[in-house]
Design goal:
Elements lengths: L16 H20 L2 E4 L3 H13 L11 E5 L14 H4 L9 H8 L3 E6 L16 E2 L3 E2 L1 E2 L2 E5 L5 H8 L5 E6 L5 H7 L2 E4 L19 E6 L2 H11 L19 E5 L8 H16 L3 E6 L7 H20 L10 H10 L1 H4 L6 H7 L7 H25 L3 E5 L21 H6 L3 E9 L2 E8 L5 H19 L12
Parallel strand pairs: 2-3, 2-8, 11-12, 11-13
Antiparallel strand pairs: 1-3, 4-5, 6-7, 8-10, 9-10, 9-14, 13-15, 14-15
Helix pairs in contact: 1-2, 5-6, 7-15, 8-15, 9-12, 9-13
């Protein structure tokens, strides 16, 4: 991500904030990306874009609050000027997509500078069951900036690690089940998975149309709210939900059971978070339980059936010459097994290839069961206890990277909302032996504004109590 300064005749007099921002971030990239490997494709036109936006500002045209700010985009989201690979060598040598994804177009129209693409868990962590989050054949291994031998989570690994490492304040991730909130929690950043459907899904390499969504990953809740406003088209100003610490009119449920108890240190930090929410005036309704979201088989049936259909439809949008079907991707991986299949297999791809379409009785039954498990569980608890939202620990602290045996996740908060298509918002809550952890706010469909209000109030209270969240030290964790 080289930095080329403009000559004196190339810029108008006065401050050039976008150029200054990009040059600083490019310098930061050169310093820390060799350590964390979060950005896989820098944008060589970033400074040119910054100069154009500065000229607009000089001429009195400011597109909005994000004018001239830099954003990193996960490498499974289409950008017409940069490759979109989903981390796979099968797409690495193909031309860039013919069009920006709608969400990228909205970012550019709002005055954002696309600084580059971030690495991810290959195919968004839905290729083989023993995968290591943060690894892709195209982008290599992304590491956690707080502990370089620990996982950055997945699948939006690069987006989370890049924001934590100071390579951008704003990034875009995608989530099917945990892929925003997990790396947000592990890297100590804010991660917002919106209600499915709020952000257009076109131009995103898919797993599941019923669960996939893009979302913001940022340093602060207010930045996530501003990004969400742009990503959703601007009809709702989510930044208005960031309005102070007073939560005295809200009731928050605390589901326990398997959502707690898998990490002593995480539980301790999460209990402190509950106390801060109480100090903000929120009524906490504790010791609740969410019904089990059901067996993993239902979700696997849904994801497998939808992947085959949705991925084939996506591949048809790419320029000729590349893979067009899931079967062709499986064959490519077999032909390049020394790289693609070095650490884990593709049994999830193979399972999906064996499915029989969205009219299959197996799919229809599994989709209905999964939807009921997610929505009935969340909505039933909210309704029974007259709650505005739920709060729980986000994810276990970052585990040691193990490319041989794969991830070792002790616990998480994402499954109910994933099945339901409902929003989640993870915000940093503290450190466990130097490793970031977060708490997650969950609610019913289109309760995104309420979750932003809660998370912003908590974030404000935590900063007042403990100061700014500690920055990473780029060390090995012992």
């Amino acid at each position: 991500m080289s930095s080329t300064r403009q000559g004196p005749g190339d810029v108008s007099p006065g401050p050039r904030p976008a150029i200054v921002t990009v040059e600083k971030l490019q310098a930061r990239y050169a310093e820390v990306n060799p350590l964390v490997n979060a950005v896989c494709t820098p944008n060589p036109a970033a400074l040119t874009d910054a100069a154009r936006l500065d000229t607009e500002r000089d001429d009195g045209r400011v597109r909005g609050p994000l004018h001239g700010l830099a954003v990193l985009v996960k490498d499974n989201i289409d950008t017409a000027d940069l490759p979109t690979t989903a981390g796979s060598l099968a797409l690495a040598d193909q031309p860039p997509p013919p069009h920006d994804a709608p969400l990228v177009r909205r970012l550019r129209e709002a005055g954002c500078i696309v600084l580059g693409k971030t690495n991810l868990s290959e195919w968004a962590n839905f290729r083989g069951s023993a995968s290591s989050s943060g690894w892709s054949a195209y982008g290599g291994l992304t590491r956690n900036p707080y502990a370089l031998n620990r996982s950055a989570g997945g699948s939006s690994s690069g987006s989370g690690a890049a924001v934590a490492a100071g390579m951008a304040d704003l990034a875009i991730g995608t989530e099917t089940n945990g892929s925003i909130v997990c790396p947000a929690a592990l890297n100590g950043v804010v991660g917002l998975k919106p209600t499915v459907g709020l952000i257009p899904q076109q131009g995103i390499v898919p797993i599941s149309h019923s669960q996939d969504t893009a979302g913001p990953m940022t340093r602060t809740v207010s930045q996530a709210a501003a990004l969400l406003t742009v990503l959703t088209g601007g009809a709702t100003d989510y930044l208005q939900s960031c309005r102070g610490e007073d939560l005295s009119d809200l009731r928050i449920g605390v589901p326990r059971g398997p959502l707690w108890g898998y990490s002593i240190g995480l539980d301790r930090v999460s209990e402190e978070a509950l106390e801060l929410l109480s100090q903000c005036g929120a009524t906490l309704v504790d010791h609740l339980s969410l019904p089990s979201p059901g067996g993993d088989e239902d979700q696997l049936h849904v994801l497998s059936h939808e992947l085959k259909v949705d991925l084939t439809a996506y591949l048809a949008t790419r320029k000729p010459g590349g893979p067009r079907t899931l079967a062709e991707l499986i064959a490519f991986n077999q032909q390049h097994a020394d790289v693609e299949l070095r650490y884990f297999g593709q049994e999830l791809f193979e399972r999906a290839e064996g499915t029989e379409g969205l009219d299959s009785p197996v799919y229809v039954a599994a989709r209905l069961s999964a939807l009921r498990a997610g929505r009935d569980g969340i909505d039933g608890l909210l309704r029974e206890k007259q709650l505005d939202a739920l709060v729980m620990p986000s994810y276990s602290p970052a585990w040691t990277i193990d490319l041989i045996n794969g991830d070792h996740v002790l616990g998480s908060s994402s499954s109910h909302a994933a099945l339901a298509g409902y929003p989640l918002l993870s915000v940093p809550s503290g450190l466990v032996e130097g490793l970031p952890v977060g708490i997650t706010f969950s609610g019913t469909g289109r309760s995104d504004a309420t979750l932003i209000r809660l998370a912003h109030a908590f974030e404000t209270a935590r900063i007042k109590a403990h100061g700014p969240f500690p920055t990473p030290e780029f060390r090995q964790w012992v």
